[in-house]
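Figure caption, in words: inputs first, then the predicted bound structure.
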Amino acid sequence: MSIKGKAFIAGAYEHPDREIPGKSPAQVHAEVALGALADAGLSLSDVDAYFCAGDAPGFGTISMAEYLGLGLSYMDSTETGGSSYVVHVGHAAAAIAAGKCQVALITLAGLPRSGDFGRPPFGGAPEGAFENVFGPTVLGMYALAAQRHMYEFGTTSEQLAAIKVAASHHAQHNSRAFLQDVITIEDVLQSPLVSDPLHRLDCCVITDGGGALLVVSPEVARDLDRQCVKVLGEGEAPKHTNNGRIDLTHTGALWSGPRAFREAGLTPADIDYASIYDSFTITVLETIEDLGFCEKGKGGSFVMDGALHAPHGKLPFNTDGGGLCNNHPANRGGMTKVIEAVRQLRGEAHPKVQVPDCSLALAHGTGGSLGTRMGSATLILGREDA
Amino acid sequence: MSENSLPTPTPKVNPETKPFWDATAEGKLLLKRCNQCQTVIWYPRFLCPACASTDTLWFEASGEGVVYSYTVTRRGQGHYWQAAPYVLAYVELAEGPRVLTNIVDCVPESVAIGQKVEAVFHDTGEGSALVRFRPA
Ligand SMILES: [Zn+2]
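Bound structure (zinc ion present):
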């Protein structure tokens, strides 16, 4: 049993704004839900399954189901941080394949740029007292991974910067991107060190916003006028400190990737376009290694060759500008990763970055803290006729 | 106790972790070892995550280790908002586990991966101490 070909993404919608003062988080969830439904040509009354994560206000799936007036036969509030929405597509496809539902809505929204940071995460975590007292920051935890990767493999700050540069080249074509200027490696290196070895420009943007997806059964997809995208495989994995034997140079992609490729019956060489989670430049570097797009430890030289640049690089990535330049709504980038992969497969990315004849795409999500305590998820999608 | 310039937020103690924190107040780093498979356990807990045995014993660690990774944090948050620059690090204890901590009593930029370090105890004033490390 697999989900391959048993579900389709029929609607995908990214909130157009990057700063949304004067609206509530629930309201933005609702706006993106309506946006995705309009994209698919469906209505709220068609939805029989709802998926959301820790950014959804209130009580799991229940509060937003009430707000939207949903009647549901299936619900899932799996929380794996920024990768949650990639996981949700896999879970929705599995539920559809099992006959539990036909039209699954997934929403993400949040307003961190406007100062609403949502619910505090990790409350009561058993590891908390042993770590929080030492002043860890999100950036600091990623910096620890970057430092170790540099030590083990000779990765350089220039190589990490090249990832931001590639994202900026794509973002210049996205009129909605939070950062639209093309930058250079020098620009990244000259931005202030925030947590060595990571500079300010190694980081993603902080934006308000949201997005939504509709995953539907083949029967529903067949009746829609909109071009759908086929779900071919999904893999997910938690990675934690493994009884204190933490390994900072690998991510959960080491396990989620092969699971997704096996389900899809594909290999990394088959992928035309990849959305790679990019909370920080080091996130991309470790992920492309672990997914098998290059050898472990060789990510630095891989990205220096222009591999990530669309449309003609070896692995065109994050053609919307990614979290690094375009949008990282609610500090969670998994939703926009799937949305840009859908645009590429529909041929609706910006013409300057549309990968020619794009028929197979990957979207990878990273939640939590790189290498330390994280949820990884890999989704493989194909054109409707794939 | 070494001289300390970093904040000492009080850790949240529960019945499962109280022996650990009580010992830190006496300048001792306690770890748990599994009595079945001998694995050293970090962070301390009710069972052995390697073999699921609940037969675990506290023992005193050497306090010796090496830096596994580090970062100079230049913008702290919460209790640390005025503490920057400070060194956040994973130290690999001689007993095996890699623990999150701070490296103190040195110039932040002088810290290096592989550097030998030793434990110091910074009293929180609440019946516990934070286990940090300094160059050995
Ligand atoms: Zn054991």
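Residues 9-135 of chain B form one domain.
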